[in-house]
Amino acid sequence: MLTYDLKVGYSCNNRCKHCVIDDSKDMLLNKAVSIDLTTNECMEQIDEMLKKRITSIVLTGGEVTIRKDFSELIKKCVDSNLLITVQTNGRKLNDIKIINAIKDVKNIKFVIALHGKSAKTHDAITQVRGSFIETCQGIKKMCLLGKNVILKIVISKINMLELPEIIKLASNLGVKYICFAFPHGHGAARKNFSEIIPTYSELKEILREMINIATQEKINIEFEAIPFCIIPYAMQLVGELKYLEGNTMCTQVREDTFDWEKVRKSIKRKGSNCINCDMDSFCEGPWSEYVETFGTNELIPVKLPVKSKRLIYKALNKKI
C-alpha cells in the first residue's frame, strides 16, 4: 500500500513545545513565503500522487481542520477513492461544519493528539488554555459518530508520569488504539530539549506499567521511536513494524516529495553494539539527536532463543 502524507500548511491553533515543524515553518517565514498551501496547490499535489497510484492519504499540518477548504479536501479524497487519515489536535472536531464534512465518509480515521490526563498538563504542552477540553470533546464526538480514532501521544518529561492515566482517560472517552511517540529532538523539541526529552532509562518502568494498564483496559497500543531492546518483553508493540507493510511518500510545504522510509532511517542512529542484536535487521534505532545527547549505552542487544528467533523472523519477513 502506498500512502501519501500531505502537509497542507503550518498554521495551527496550538503551539506545542515538542512540535517538529518549527524549522520548516521558520524557513518559509524568513523567505516571506506563505506557510500554507492554497486549495489549488493541495489539489494539484493530490492529483500528482494519484498518478503514482497512492491508495491512502494523510491530511496533516499544522492543523488541517482550521482550513476553510477542509470539506473540499475531504471531498477530493473521497472522490479519488482514497483511504483518509486526518491528523489533528481534535479541537475543531466538535464543530458542525467539520462534522458535516466527515459524518458520511466511510473510509476515514482520525489520529488525534492528546498530551495529558488533565488540562494542567495538556495545556502546558500546547501552550493554549482550553485546548484540553476542546480536544477531549472532539475525541468523544468522533467516537460517538463511530469513527475510527487513534490517539497520538508524544511522550515527554512533562507528561511521562501521567502516561498510564492517559490510557484510562482514553478508555473513558471511547478510544481503542493509542500510539505513544517518543519525541524527535527537532524544531520546537530541539529548542526545548532539556524540558521535553526524557531518557529511555527514565521511561522503562513507566512503559511496563502502561502496557499492563492497556491490557486491563483492552486498549491496543504501540510505541514509535522506542527500540526493541527497551521493551524486549513486548517487542510486538514497536510501532515501526507497521512500515513493513507499505510505504509512505511525504510532502512538506513548498518542498519536494520524499520517501519517508528512507528519510526516517537516515535521521535515526544505532550503537556499535546493535549489530549483535537479534532484532538489528528490523530495528531503526533512536532519533539521531537522542544518541548525540545520551549515547547508546541503554541499547542492550536482544538475544532470542533459537525457536523464537525463527518464528519472529518468519512472521516479520512475511510483512516485507
Protein model, in words:
The structure is a single chain. The chain is of the alpha/beta class and 320 residues long. The protein has one domain (2-270): Alpha-Beta Barrel (TIM Barrel). Helices cover 39% and strands 15% of the residues. It has helices at 22-30, 39-50, 70-79, 96-102, 119-126, 131-144, 163-173, 188-191, 193-196, 200-217, 260-266, 288-294, 306-319; strands at residues 2-7, 56-60, 83-88, 108-113, 148-154, 177-181, 220-224, 247-251, 257-259. It has a 9-stranded mixed beta sheet. Strand 8 (247-251) and strand 9 (257-259) form a beta hairpin. It is globular and about 55 Å long. The termini are close together.
Quick overview:
Residues 1-222 form the Radical SAM core domain. The protein has 320 residues and is of the alpha/beta class. It has 13 helices and nine strands.
List the helices and strands and how they pair.
Elements: E1 2-7, H1 22-30, H2 39-50, E2 56-60, H3 70-79, E3 83-88, H4 96-102, E4 108-113, H5 119-126, H6 131-144, E5 148-154, H7 163-173, E6 177-181, H8 188-191, H9 193-196, H10 200-217, E7 220-224, E8 247-251, E9 257-259, H11 260-266, H12 288-294, H13 306-319
Parallel strand pairs: 1-2, 1-8, 2-3, 3-4, 4-5, 5-6, 6-7
Antiparallel strand pairs: 8-9
Fill in the keyword field for this structure.
9-stranded mixed β-sheet; catalytic activity; TIM Barrel; globular; iron; Radical SAM core domain-containing protein; 320 residues; alpha/beta
